[in-house]
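Why this split exists: single-chain examples teach little about how molecules sit against one another. For that reason, every record in the complexes split bundles all components of an assembly together and asks for one structure covering all of them. Below is a record exactly as it appears in the raw files.
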Amino acid sequence: MNQYQIGTRCVQGGYRPGNGEPRQVPIVQSTTFKYDTNEDMGRLFDLEAEGYFYSRLQNPTCDTVAKKICELEGGSAAILTGSGQSANFFAVFNIAGCGDHVVASSSIYGGTYNLLSVTMRRMGLEVTFVDPDCTEEELNAAFRPGTKAVFGETIANPALTVLDIEKFARAAHGHGVPLIVDNTFATPVNCQPLSWGADIVTHSTTKYMDGHASALGGCIVDGGRFDWMAHREKFPGLCEPDESYHGVTYAERFGMGGAFIYKATAQLMRDLGPVQSPQSAYLLNVGLESLHVRVQRHCENAQAIAEHLSRHEKVAWVSYCGLPGDKYHALAQKYLPHGSCGVVSFGVRGGRQAAETFMAHLNIASIVTHVADARTCCLHPASTTHRQMSDAELLAAGVSPDLVRLSVGLESCADLIADIDQALDAVLCS
Ligand SMILES: *Cc1c(COP(=O)(O)O)cnc(C)c1O
């Protein structure tokens, strides 16, 4: 499939039915698979034959959809997970655990920040957060002898910072560790981090990939270019025998292209189990078939709305990397030349009260804790996700009291702009 352009891969990747086979990806709604002999099944347990025996490890529907996402990102292997959270957890935990250290951008999704700084810290992993805009010297200074990975987001949710992927990849590779990039907001339609030097890509497929707020899910894609064996003392889990799996050494048996995903499947999925269901994978695939068309429209609508807001007298500021004056415009032109995402954040003049009045008057955009689906929605962090914080604490966290996060959907743009205008009209100018 990799000879085809992204749109063809979105529509037809992962699944090419044979003569007389179903046109649509079949939902294999079965936990288990039947074999004629113990030996047949034993070979599967030993990872000596390809096949299915239990859907916690592998399921044909999930594998087909993972293969499509793998083709979209230009990777060597991929696995679906039950959520974006479990994808990021597995991507890190597959190579870093108790006593290890990770360098992460401080501008990442709140759930991932918490995963790294609270939950994985309780497991004995240490993390150093760095400002994504830091110099290479500052970035290099964050590494320790026990550092096992670097983590960032192509476009951060909700801060909308754009990651300098090449800068982060250089630092990671200079220290002999891989760069993991969460590509949820950009999607492979707008950016393929593997082509810029990232080694592992993760997704919350819950967002644009599903695109309709139908099914939770996640995905991990391995680029297949990180040489684990060249740094074998850092990655014993991949480069030394796994006694819990008949002594298999993943990096030897499956090579650079397969080791990471095989280990995540055979070991982490076996022991922890956050699989995506075949039903969810089917819905995800329906979303993926139109990803390239939807993402383009999300970006067109968001660009027009960001431009409109930036000219509006009742709007104090707008953050969107598609705007020429934006702090991340230059990085976006390099990494996201065809568009960034559909999420725009902005401040309503008049602060917290003005933002709340504005949102209360919207008719098309609804208030939901979600982003990146077909319906326009918005969130006021100061009165919802961050409501326990004082105004001073909010500012310190980079969330101003007037901030509205708008996830621009696929509706007709003129209707969205008219809706925004009438809601801004309701805000009294002070
Ligand atoms: C939503 C999100 C996640 C978490 O994904 P879930 O599917 O909700 O578990 C991770 N990273 C980013 C960038 C997200 O937007």
